[in-house]
Amino acid sequence: MRNLKVCIAYNGAAYHGFQRQNNAVTIQQTVEEKMSKLLGQNVTINGCSRTDTGVHAKQFFFNSKIDNAIPCEGFIKGMNSLLPDDIAVLSCEDAEEDFHARYCAKGKEYIYIVSNTPQRDVFSQGLVLHYPQRLDEKIMDKASKLFIGEHDFAAFCKAEAKEHLKSTVRTVYDFSVQRKDDSVIFTVSGNGFLHNMVRIMVGTLIYVNEGKRSEADILRSLETGDRETAGKTIPPEGLYLNKVFY
Q1: 125 and 32 share a domain?
Q2: Got the DSSP string for 69-102?
Q3: 22 CB-near residues (< 8 Å, 6+ apart)
Q4: Which of 52, 132, 164, 214 has the most CB atoms at less than 10 Å from its CB?
Q5: Residues annotated catalytic, as ranges
Q6: Is 115 exposed, middle or buried (CB count within 10 Å of its CB: 0-12, 13-18, 19+)?
């Protein structure tokens, strides 16, 4: 029995997130079906994260226990010939028996891309968030530093998700906001992220830009866990799982 460690990238616009669901098309379902066809056996994969509907990944890892001697090079070529155009296998290697893509991950980096132009770009629909008003990346970058460190991020989590969590404490390693031409890019890394956490943090920084929230409100949210003092949950289309650290 082999334990494969596989890296994929995907455009999540057409999928209801990574995790398999009974009534919707997901990344996990699609990959498992193609792997099962390629290998001639029923396959289950363990993903490194549970990305939401419409969220993308530039680097997403999964592992899978298989009973097949297919070389990794052949696996990559075979999978890429079967997968739809919005999912691609980037790498494959044999891992230790106890490797688990989710539980062995040391941290993750997400990026959120905002197209900051007066008119929307019709060719980037579903891949970035269009925001027509001017964004001041310097103001938001300064405020983003307040998230760095170990905090209780209860105010930055989807309410229903908190009921199933032992703790809402997470550590953010770094957070930055930079402008690149007409795009504003939010980059955040940490040891783990709550449901909608990145989207709420970015939404809060956009509220700071708009004058609807202040740096004091961010600190108050982290101290009290009050969702009302944080910002809005922005749409998923600009969010990418960018890197996974092992």
Answers
A1: no
A2: ---HHHHHHHHHHHS-TTEEEEEEEE--TT--TT
A3: none
A4: 52
A5: 52
A6: buried
Residue 169 placed within a domain: yes
- Whether residue 17 lies inside any domain: the answer is yes
pTM: 0.95
| Structural domain boundaries, residue 136 | 107-245
Interior/surface letters 156-179, b for 16+ CB within 10 angstroms, e for the rest: bbeeeeeeeeeebebebeebbbeb
User: pLDDT tens, 149-204?
Assistant: 999 999 999 887 777 788 999 999 999 999 999 999 999 999 999 999 999 999 99
Supply the pLDDT for residue 60.
98
Question: What pLDDT, on a 0 to 100 scale, did the predictor assign at position 132?
Answer: 97
pLDDT tens digits, one per residue of 68-98: 999 999 999 999 999 999 999 999 999 999 9
Does 70 lie in the same domain as 21?
yes
Distance CA 183, CA 236 (A): 16
Same domain, 131 and 230: yes
